[in-house]
Queue: 2 jobs
Job 1
Amino acid sequence: MQNTSPYKEPEKWDVIIVGAGAAGLMCAIEAGKRGRRVLVIDHAKKLCEKIRISGGGRCNFTNIHTTANDFISGNKHFCKSALARYTPYDFLDLMAKHEIKYHEKTLGQLFCDNSAQDIIDMLLTECRDAGVEIHNPVSVNGVRPIPESPNGLKFTLETSKGAVTCQSLVIATGGLSIPKIGATDFGHRIARQFDIPLTPIRPALVPLTLNADDKAFCKTLSGVSQDCIASVKKQGFRENLLFTHRGLSGPAILQISSYLEPGKSLSIDLLPGQNIEEELTANANKKKTLTNVLAPFMSKRFAQEWVDRFSENRTPADMGSKKLRAVAEAIHKWVITPSGDEGYAKAEVTLGGVNTKDLSSNTMESKTRSGLFFIGEVVDVTGHLGGFNFQWAWASGHAAGQAV
């Protein structure tokens, strides 16, 4: 199926897909099953690296609770059609066909029992069975539109193996996240070349960095996690926060990072579901130190560092109600302004991309450039943490595969 020999002359294909990731391979499978002659081109020596490293090597391949509300986009309705036509249960049917075992972790997140390689092998097997050809490592050096053609050819691709032509061109190259495994801005450049607008692009699902003072505090707690609610305006996520030597990470922080505008603040409730003011003012706790009052609700190390930074380690009996209320408010509403984030190197996805106003929500085809499709992460549809971005890859790839 994989081929690296040079092209002798421009070869004609029904469909060329650039990018052999989750979305690209799903699109190829569906198009191939429809009898289309499909070529997938990828610049990487090793295919599907993002699948391979996801979920700690076990691939959080979908989320059974997926809805359109789990995605960020300039058009919140755009993803509904594709998600409705290819659901998590459709992907589970494919898993069952290949006898791949999986398990659910928290909040509907599904992972392979064995490894992410099971997913990769399944996709490549399905491509082979559908007659799809995959050529890698092959780089695309340029894309040119073909003027009116009687045989329906619309694009010529100049590649490191020579020229190829096609009727339908699908861009499935992803975003800028994790450049060490080959992420590039190829998809964004193609969109610009054909005057297809992009929404603002930045890292998402990314750890946050802090100013020197806050960073020093977090460094003392590096490795400590804490249940919390991280919020920006009306959007909040209850999951764990993780202190790092650079700042803040963990699921709650990664989630809220997608909503946090640069230079803005977020609010963190470090004891959600608790009323710590009641504990601080309870008769039984009046002669305990603040650290000992807080310790049952967080690690003693965290309680000690928090009190040392934000208060004196006195007993509630030595403090007035106003001070105790201020301590409680600081715990339930820790307001912090990050200095930035750890960038695309640590971001799980790219926020923004090809503007959905230019795409058909039914087919993923450009409304202004016939035969040109964009799917997956390169599109301005960004999922929450927990398998949603993979589900968008499967669903958008399936939608385009039915149309190319």
Job 2
Amino acid sequence: MQSTDVLIVGGGGAGCSAALHLALRGVRVVLLERGLVGGQATGVNYGGVRQQGRDPAGLPLARKSREIWSRISELTGSDVEFDACGHLKLARTPDEEAELLRWNALAAEHGLRPRMIGRNAIRAENPFFSDQVIAGSLLEEDGSANPRLLAPALARAARAAGAEIRENCGVTDLHHDGGNFVLTAGGRSLTAPWLLNCAGFWGGAIARRFGEEVPITKLHPNMLVTEPLPYFLRNSLGVVGGNLYLRQIPRGNIIFGGGHGESDEAIRVTRPRPDAAFGAMQRAVGVIPRLAEAMVIRSWTGTDGMLPDHFPVLGPSQTTPGLIHAFGFCGEGFQTGPGVGAVLSELVMDGATDIPLDAFAIGRFTDARVTG
């Protein structure tokens, strides 16, 4: 049986970031990923590095993560195509414009400085918008990155720092023996006093093993990409309500999404849905009419976890000392992944973090208490 300091289950952005931050502090870490790192939610999303529009409870974590994004190339030794291109959130009705104004006031309390853009100015700055767009809010420090590059870059850096990253190594048994966690994966047994549950949608099943039931459901964001088009769109775009998000990469392709895909019962196969894709296309053309002639060349989806209040589970277990959860990021975890890893390393090494986690506590779903 192999003994280590920290076991991590799940090789997405949060898990790989945690492995890196812990290894940099001299901790022995083994990360177990049943597929390839970044193979689920972290690697198949839109790629938005967005603070704009987040609930105030999530802004401190988003702010911490954004600071890490500013040095992500230095941290990982890789280019993950992070671009502080700005995130422009659009309003299409007066009520949506009021929502932008409300959020901007809250954002200022967290040190953010979004710029509200009215009807005339947003047309002058973005003449390709249709008459649907009546206002926008631009947060210039937000941006985008390549989701297929983030987790592998964090994993490579973690390995270089001394962490052990095992891919294609699913967990087949997991329990706590009263002193340590004992885990079987790839036919080998491992033990450690700390377990970080970073398993995405499947994190709910791990929590259940330790008496912590959460109402998590599967989430399959529906994504599409067009052929390369003449470059015209600098900002990453979203809309109030979240049913459309859209950005253009330097090569010219438009990456956009909206709606949800589907999966089989065991989530062995995920598929984009044609009706969701068509709806996203219609909304995209409604905002930017010139996209009507663009050819969609690929669509895809993956699996994340959704919770009823749209907040993740992040923080210590209430039943089992040494167990820390970080799962169910509700389609919004790409931006926060690097910061979540830093928070997890602080909880392990320092016993505390400066990020408020009460809104994310697993105890909001259960009255369980630490039992030993």
